[in-house]
Specification:
Elements (H helix, E strand, L loop, with lengths): L1 H7 L8 H28 L2 H9 L2 H34 L5 H7 L2 H4 L2 H12 L6 H4 L10 H26 L2 H9 L4 H30 L2 H7 L9 H10 L3 H34 L1
Length: 280
C-alpha cells in the first residue's frame, strides 16, 4: 500500500495534484469536450438514416476526398522539404540565414485570406508563376492543384519548427562517429539521424495535416470551389450553414472529426512505436 502511494504521488514543482487535475479537466471540458459533445448531439437529431445520407452524398464524399487526400499529400511533401529546410538552417551558416529563418514563420502570422489572395494572384494565368506554367498546360489557380499549393504554404512551418529544436540537440559528432565506424552517408542518415528525428517529424506531419484539413481562408480563393471538382469540406459546411441546414452541417463536421481523429491516432501510435524502438 505504501509503495503504491509513493508511486502515485510523484514530487512536483507545482503542488496539489487534485487541484491541477481538476483545473485541467474543467478547462478541457469547457474548451474541447462540451463543444464536441454539442456537435454530436446536433447531428444526432437527423437520425441514423438521414445522417448517413447527409455524409454519403456524392458532393460530400467528393469534398471529403479532396480535403483529406490533398491534406495528406501536402503534409507528406512538407515532411520531406520541412526536414531539408530545418537541416539547412541548423547545419549551415550562410549570409541571410536569420532572414530565411524568419521567413519560415510568415504563414503563421499572415492572415489566411491574405495568403489565399496572394497565392491566387501569383499562380493565376496572368500571374508571375501561373503565366510561365500556362504555356506548359499546367493550371494551378481554380484547380485541386491550387489547393495543394496553398496547403503546402500554410503547413511547412509546422514541420520546420518541430524538427529544428531536435536537430539542434543532435550533435554533429554523432555523424562523425558513424562515419569513422565505416557507415556511409545513407546509412548514417537512415540508421542514426532519421530514428532520432522521426518522433518530431511525425509530430510536425500531424500538425501540418491537421491544419491542412481544416484550412479555409487561404484555400477558397485559389480552389475555384467547383462542386465535385475543387470544393473542400469546410466550405461545404459553411454552405450548409448558409442554407440553415445546421444538422447536415454538423453531420459533415462529425464525419471530418472522426476521420481526422482516426488518422491522428494512427500517426500518434506510429510516433510512440518509433520512440520505444529508439529507447530499445
Amino acid at each position: 500500500m505504501t509503495t503504491a502511494r509513493l508511486t502515485w504521488r510523484q514530487p512536483s514543482v507545482i503542488p496539489g495534484f487534485g487541484i491541477t487535475l481538476g483545473v485541467t479537466v474543467t478547462w478541457l471540458s469547457l474548451i474541447v469536450l462540451i463543444p464536441l459533445a454539442g456537435l454530436f448531439l446536433k447531428s444526432a437529431t437527423l437520425g441514423w438514416g438521414k445522417f448517413f445520407e447527409a455524409i454519403t452524398s456524392p458532393r460530400v464524399l467528393a469534398a471529403l476526398e479532396i480535403s483529406f487526400g490533398i491534406a495528406l499529400a501536402a503534409a507528406t511533401v512538407n515532411a520531406v522539404f520541412g526536414l531539408i529546410v530545418a537541416w539547412v538552417l541548423v547545419r549551415y551558416d550562410f549570409p541571410g540565414r536569420r532572414v530565411v529563418d524568419a521567413i519560415v514563420d510568415i504563414p503563421f502570422a499572415l492572415p489566411t485570406a491574405v495568403a489565399g489572395i496572394a497565392l491566387t494572384a501569383l499562380y493565376a494565368e496572368n500571374g508571375w508563376i501561373g503565366g510561365l506554367l500556362e504555356p506548359l498546360g499546367i493550371r494551378v489557380s481554380f484547380t485541386p492543384l491550387g489547393i495543394f499549393v496553398a496547403l503546402i504554404f500554410i503547413g511547412l512551418p509546422f514541420v520546420v519548427r518541430t524538427v529544428q529544436p531536435v536537430l539542434e540537440d543532435l550533435e554533429p559528432e554523432i555523424e562523425e562517429a558513424a562515419a569513422s565506424l565505416g557507415a556511409t552517408r545513407r546509412q548514417t542518415f537512415l540508421r542514426v539521424i532519421l530514428p532520432t528525428l522521426f518522433p518530431a517529424l511525425a509530430t510536425g506531419y500531424a500538425l501540418a495535416f491537421s491544419r491542412a484539413v481544416g484550412e479555409y481562408g487561404s484555400v477558397i480563393f485559389i480552389a475555384g470551389n467547383m462542386p465535385l471538382v475543387s470544393e473542400i469540406a469546410p466550405l461545404l459546411i459553411v454552405i450548409r450553414l448558409n442554407e440553415f441546414a445546421y444538422a447536415e452541417a454538423t453531420a459533415i463536421a462529425v464525419a471530418m472529426l472522426i476521420a481526422s481523429f482516426a488518422l491522428l491516432l494512427a500517426i500518434n501510435l506510429l510516433q510512440r512505436w518509433a520512440r520505444s524502438r529508439g529507447r530499445g
